[in-house]
Design goal:
- By secondary structure, this protein is mostly loops.
- The protein has one helix at 10-17.
- It starts with 9 loop residues before the first helix and ends in a 38-residue tail after the last helix.
- Residues 36-55 are annotated as: Disordered.
Length: 55
Amino acid sequence: MVDPRYAIPLEEFVAGAQVARDEQIEVQAEPAVPAPAYGDGLRYADGMSGDADGD
């Protein structure tokens, strides 16, 4: 049987596929806390909601 034309030796293939352990760690930034929204705080307080006795 004839060798494949573009065959890569196994050792070269494995050496090219391995990634160092330090490079496998993904570093993520600290989660960003959104700024408080200083808009209309009572936007949904339209007078339709009441307490237990309806006032």
